[in-house]
What does this fold into?
Amino acid sequence: MFNYKVLVFLWFLSFSIYAQVKVSGVVKDSIGNPLNLANAIAVNLDTKAIESYNITNGKGVYTLNLAKNTPYKLTVS
It folds into this structure.
């Protein structure tokens, strides 16, 4: 017997995944060297809540998953 609750859950999950965008970038210091272990934080400007965060890798790269059509403030420290 197929469980319809699972089907409904997967249906909603597909919309939540589809409604996201990946934002990535590189953090560098003042002389152009990539910064390892820098914090990249996206704050939703409507709710003032942290929506996504990541720590840069050895090449200074970070990736954030954010909702479409939502204003954010990106802070790197």
Summary: The chain has a mean pLDDT of 82. The CA atoms of residues 47 and 54 lie 19 Å apart. The longest helix spans residues 4-18.
